[in-house]
TrEMBL record:
Heteropentamer, formed by a combination of alpha (GABRA1-6), beta (GABRB1-3), gamma (GABRG1-3), delta (GABRD), epsilon (GABRE), rho (GABRR1-3), pi (GABRP) and theta (GABRQ) chains, each subunit exhibiting distinct physiological and pharmacological properties. Keywords: Cell membrane, Chloride, Chloride channel, Disulfide bond, Glycoprotein, Ion channel, Ion transport, Membrane, Receptor, Signal, Transmembrane, Transmembrane helix, Transport. The keyword Mitochondrion does not apply. Belongs to the ligand-gated ion channel (TC 1.A.9) family. Gamma-aminobutyric acid receptor (TC 1.A.9.5) subfamily. GABRP sub-subfamily. Residues 1-22 form the signal peptide. This is Gamma-aminobutyric acid receptor subunit pi. One of its GO terms (cellular component) is apical plasma membrane.
């Protein structure tokens, strides 16, 4: 029983295999019946697994591109997505036929012919459009030339240098290479040189404009051999107008807004602190927003980062300026006294002169009326200085010596106070002068820094 069951299973498998072979043969016959007689004659004895001129040197494949669109250019992923029409031409001596017209075949018949194994080198993801059918074109000319066209959407890597972002120029490439056939088997060339690529003149991009493009031919060297490679270079220039309106103008206006505090009185502490802190926080938010659309993994110091750092420094400097000016007011009298300090000083000098003049007249009259009262003090003074050995002279020395160290200490304290005032107030007699100088120095320095910034990043 076990033997009969196994025999039945083997018989069933053989029967199914026979039926499948018969259906495949019938399908091939039906497919051959729908082919035109010319194609049937060309396909008779044709081996698609062997390249043309298998024993007579390499086959030359000419290529041309038509850029349909460049959808996205990503700085974060450093790639671009493009839809292209890739056209390849080569000559196959086995497909020569008599006639004056070319044969346009259905794209599905490409499975019957040999085609180059071309691939996109830096492609991350690619697909062939298949709506409503696979977007392929096969055309055979009487001399055996085959035109093979494809519609491909591919995402290609592009190494970008973002040090001058957003005033940067990026050069991206599209490289076509043979996967299995080396230069001894296949040779690639551009059919019309730099004019082999079309569609860039009418291309509309969101942030870029195509400035230049050109083609080149090279060889890819691997461990398995040298392979033919075609390279298409195109240069993209970023449009800066969007970033001027989005980032540069708001950041510059924030800097100008921080200067408003220079025209507000030093006594208005809440108003000046509010302006300084608000502009600092707003500038920080603007800097964080500008970084979200850029890659964080790289180490680029971009031009926009430099400008935002400059604006943040000026805004923070305006806040520090008020802190310094307010601190200087703590070591000075009231501002009203500062304004009229020089006038009051001159008035005091005049009053002191008048009082001195008035007091000098009675002393002179007294000396005229009492001329004999002046001589007695003179001998006493001379007596003290001439007779140092007398007991009275020895008692006068301790009384005359203390004023000297006291005067020295007072002069030292006065010098120390002057040094501290010069350090704390930076030789500013009136704290209001700090705001006055800031109204000039901050705008002038900001204009100079902007001139240096734009000159460097636009022309160097």
């Amino acid at each position: 029983m076990a033997v009969s069951a196994s025999g039945r299973t083997v018989f069933t498998i053989l029967l199914i295999s026979r039926l499948l072979e018969g259906s495949l043969l019938n399908a091939e016959m039906k497919e051959g019946e729908i082919l035109p007689p010319t194609i049937q004659r060309l396909m008779k004895g044709y081996n698609k697994y062997l390249r043309p001129f298998f024993d007579d040197g390499p086959v030359t494949v000419g290529m041309s591109l038509d850029i349909a669109s460049i959808d996205t250019i990503s700085e974060i992923n450093m790639d671009y997505t493009a839809t292209i029409f890739l056209r390849q031409r080569w000559t196959d001596e086995r497909l020569v036929f008599e006639g004056n017209k070319s044969l346009s075949l259905d794209g599905r018949l490409v499975e019957l012919l040999w085609v180059p194994d071309t691939f996109i080198v830096d492609s991350k993801k690619s697909f062939l459009h298949d709506i409503t059918v696979e977007n392929r074109l096969i055309r055979i000319f009487p001399n055996g030339t085959v035109l093979y066209a494809l519609r491909i959407t591919t995402t290609v890597a592009c190494n970008m240098d973002l040090t001058k972002y957003p005033m940067d120029k990026q050069t991206c490439t599209l490289q076509l290479e043979s996967w299995g056939y080396n230069i001894n088997d296949v040779m690639f060339y551009w059919t019309r040189g730099n004019e082999s690529v079309s569609g860039l003149d009418t291309l509309q991009l969101a942030q870029y404009t195509v400035e230049d493009h050109y083609t080149s031919v090279s060889e890819a060297v691997y461990e398995t051999g040298n392979y033919p490679r075609l390279v298409f270079h195109f240069e993209l220039k970023r449009s800066i107008l969007y970033f001027i309106l989005e980032t540069y103008v708001p950041s510059s206006l924030l800097v100008v807004l921080s200067w408003v505090s220079f025209w507000i009185s030093l006594s208005s502490v809440p108003a000046r602190i509010c302006i300084g802190v608000t502009t600092v926080l707003t500038m920080t938010t603007l800097m964080m927003g500008a970084r979200t659309s850029l890659p964080n993994a790289n180490c680029f110091i971009k031009a926009i980062d430099v400008y935002l750092g400059i604006c943040f420094s000026f805004i923070f400097g305006a806040l520090i300026e008020y802190a310094v000016a307010h601190f200087c007011t703590l070591t000075h009298p009231d501002t009203h006294l500062l304004m009229y300090g020089h006038r009051m000083h001159d008035f005091d000098d005049e009053m002191n002169g008048i009082v001195t003049t008035i007091s000098s007249h009675p002393s002179r009259a007294k000396r005229r009326k009492e001329p004999a009262a002046s001589p007695p003090p003179a001998p006493a003074a001379t007596e003290l200085t001439v007779t140092p050995s007398s007991p009275s002279g020895s008692e006068a020395k301790p009384e005359a010596s203390p004023p000297e160290p006291t005067n020295w200490c007072l002069s030292a304290m006065a010098i120390l106070c002057k040094v501290l005032r010069s350090i704390y107030c930076c030789h500013v007699e009136n704290p209001h002068h700090i705001d006055y100088y800031s109204r000039l120095t901050f705008p002038m320095s900001f204009v100079m820094v902007n001139l240096l910034y734009w000159t460097y990043y636009l022309y160097f």
